[in-house]
């Protein structure tokens, strides 16, 4: 998921400037617009009402995306992403208004313009899962419906926002779309402190795989943190992270291997298959046990018939080639990542190999 301008987010004032009335907005909410928070809306899809064209024209042009209904837990992550974007838009509009007011005061010779020192803590910093969405990191599965921010000295949970009262130093935050967010390294650390390893390892794997950061940078940032809570969890997540993994499902599987005490599984191992006239790559390979574990991610689980028939046949031939070479193959679906039965099957295969 990529945060920047994925969906079209608009405030009431922006919609009104397009020529709509409050009554028009109410009618649009039953059609192609959805209210995200007070005074902030998202354009959900292209509709048949020509009068709404100014709302969804950018979707037709490819600048913004429609909201895709997956019918599964991915929809909850999309909703949180939109909520974070909405809060960013509110912050951006507020700061733009303050900047215009300051320019007006300066032009009029007023000395009432307030200036914030760059070194002073900002009023609000996006953090944790919300910051991860802004950085484009994967959320393996929904763990919160609340926008997460930091405000020094405030610890409160509201219906749609979780405020933490820690202080984020200047070098651990950056500006995105007119608002403050924790840096990538600090975000990875905060998530690892707070959430389960399968959530944090998925993000670490992705960031390392794409070359967005390094272990050294993350450890250097961790050493600068005043907070010491759950530091062992951060080190564990870093130990489990592997840049070779290519999906959150693979990252969750690796965490499950650790939790079940399995060792020896190597990710993304490649085989030369002359009879198939190509190389094939498997998710996990245990050479000593001659065992392959393939992970069917969330998309495969829910898309089902959306997978082309020739792709299914190609997968069948690939798996048969591995079995012909003497490899055992165990497939793990997304749902089975969160149950015990499939991992007991893997355990039995490892024991039999010994």
UniProtKB/TrEMBL annotation:
It holds the Pfam family DUF559. It comes from the Bacteria. Residues 104-118 have a biased composition (Polar residues). Residues 94-122 are annotated as: Disordered. Residues 282-340 form the DUF559 domain. Coiled coil: none annotated. Residues 94-103 have a biased composition (Basic and acidic residues). This is DUF559 domain-containing protein. It comes from Brevibacterium aurantiacum.
């Amino acid at each position: 998921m990529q945060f920047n301008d994925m969906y079209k987010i608009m405030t009431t004032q922006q919609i009104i400037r397009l020529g709509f009335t409050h009554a028009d907005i109410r009618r649009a909410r039953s059609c192609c617009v959805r209210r995200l928070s007070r005074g902030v809306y998202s354009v959900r899809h292209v509709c048949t009402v020509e009068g709404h064209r100014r709302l969804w024209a950018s979707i037709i042009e490819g600048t913004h995306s429609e909201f895709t209904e997956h019918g599964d837990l991915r929809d909850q992550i999309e909703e949180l992403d939109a909520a974070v974007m909405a809060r960013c838009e509110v912050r951006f509009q507020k700061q733009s208004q303050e900047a215009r007011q300051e320019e007006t005061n300066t032009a009029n010779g007023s000395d009432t313009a307030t200036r914030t020192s760059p070194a002073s803590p900002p009023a609000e910093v996006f953090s944790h899962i919300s910051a991860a969405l802004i950085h484009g990191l994967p959320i393996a599965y929904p763990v919160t419906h609340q926008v997460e921010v930091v405000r020094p000295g405030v610890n409160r949970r509201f219906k749609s926002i979780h405020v933490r009262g820690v202080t984020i130093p200047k070098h651990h935050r950056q500006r995105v779309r007119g608002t403050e967010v924790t840096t990538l390294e600090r975000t990875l650390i905060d998530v690892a402190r707070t959430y389960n390893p399968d959530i944090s390892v998925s993000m670490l794997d992705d960031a390392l795989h794409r070359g967005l950061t390094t272990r050294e940078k993350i450890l250097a940032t961790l050493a600068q943190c005043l907070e010491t809570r759950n530091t062992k969890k951060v080190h564990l997540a870093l130990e489990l992270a592997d840049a070779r993994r290519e999906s959150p499902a693979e990252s969750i599987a690796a965490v499950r291997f650790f939790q079940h005490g399995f060792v020896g599984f190597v990710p993304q191992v490649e085989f030369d298959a002359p009879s198939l006239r190509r190389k094939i790559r498997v998710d996990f390979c245990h050479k000593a046990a001659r065992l392959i574990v393939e992970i069917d991610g969330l998309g495969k689980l829910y898309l089902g018939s959306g997978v082309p028939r020739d792709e299914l046949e190609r997968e069948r031939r690939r798996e048969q080639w591995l079995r012909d070479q003497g490899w055992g193959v165990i497939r793990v679906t997304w749902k089975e990542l969160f149950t015990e039965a499939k991992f007991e099957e893997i355990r039995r295969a490892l024991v039999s190999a010994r």
